[in-house]
Amino acid sequence: MLIYFRALGESFRFAVNALRNNKTRTFLSLMGVTVGIFSIIGVLAAVDSLEREIKGSLSALDQSTIILCHVSFGPTEVPRWKREQFPLVEYEDFQYLERAVPDTKASTYVLSVPPQTIKYDDVTLENIGVGATTEGWFEIESLQFELGRFFNASESNSGASVVVLGNEIRNKLFGEGVDPRGKKIRMYSRKLTVIGVLEKEGAGFGGDSKDEIVVVPVNLARRIYGDNNRSTFPQIVLLPKENVDDEAYVAQIEQKLRNKRGLKTDEVSNFFINQLKGFTAFIDNIIGFLTGVGWGIGGFALLVGGFGIANIMFVSVKERTNLIGIQKALGAKRRFILFQFLFESILLSIFGGLIGLIMVQGVVWLLDVSKIAGDFEFVLSFDNIFLGLFTTFVIGIIAGIVPAIGASKLDPVEAIRTGM
């Protein structure tokens, strides 16, 4: 075992000498490995960070949650011209499904209304996101409150002039830690009474966060925007009870709504039932595709880098032919010679990979410091670092195995004579 450690140390010295004596050649050869690892690990780090951000934003929602609307969140066979003719889901559809589908744990009707300007005394906030929904949103989103409460069914049904504030909106309007309950803010050219403040959540995917929104009863928004307004993107969100068969539940929703809309058996459903777990699977497919693209881009660079290292090793064998002959004449085994050059190839490859990893970490650090990506957090995980090092290890073995075998098979007499 000691002899292999000595071989490793000797190979390391040879690798360092190769770097010192042939700087340009070695640099150009290792650039392939460096760029390849930078490409692969950079893409994987970005994809992992994106996946973590998206799934973190969806983690508050139950995976069995269903979003019913006029568009599909994933691929669909329905042609675009037909989808554009689909009617919007209406408040009456929501009320009907609440009554007709008994296995529903919670449901809500949501309008994605345009941002608004809100005022309190001499403080004005512009372009503030507004959530217009029913009281069921509280349970579906698992809302947590710092102060107050969510609006109840009576306030929701009547479209009462009440509002729930995100944590940052409260801080900007009234000051940090101030209790705004009972105070009135101006929005939609009317006064709305503050009844609650959501607990601080932090930035979500794409910078979205409940900290920066206000929530009003959906029927208040309906009076302002009306029904059949495509700019409000109406949705019905349903959460089935526990232990309910998902497929049977979805089939029940589809049949009930088809019956309400008077669709015939041969007619396609003019709405989409989007399951959150299906959306998560769709995201996983995209993540897998992006990962494949990263490996494809980096793979070509790694291929070039592998040939570069193999070239270095062939040249190294040629330059040290005389030394190999002397070692074998003194009794060195074939495996000693083989491992000597194989170790050197691996060390060179790992050295190129380490440079690539350092470059990725540098980019991650610059993005974090410069805030170019906003609140999006890039993370170089330990798994990706290990994958990068393991990949360079494999590339080193593949690139060095043929030259190493060739060196180990040299005849000692011929090697000494050739090297003289």
From TrEMBL:
Membrane topology designation: Multi-pass membrane protein
Membrane-spanning intervals of the chain: 27-47, 293-315, 336-365, 385-407
Locations listed in the record: Cell membrane
Stored InterPro entries: ABC3_permease_C, MacB_PCD, Macrolide_Exporter_MacB
Location, primary (coarse class): membrane
Keyword DNA damage attached: no
Domain MacB-like periplasmic core: 26-255
Keywords on record: Cell membrane, Membrane, Transmembrane, Transmembrane helix
Domain ABC3 transporter permease C-terminal residues, every copy: 297-412
UniProt entry tagged with the keyword Hydrolase: no
Similarity field: Belongs to the ABC-4 integral membrane protein family.
Protein's name according to its UniProt entry: ABC transporter permease
Species this chain originates from: Dokdonia genika
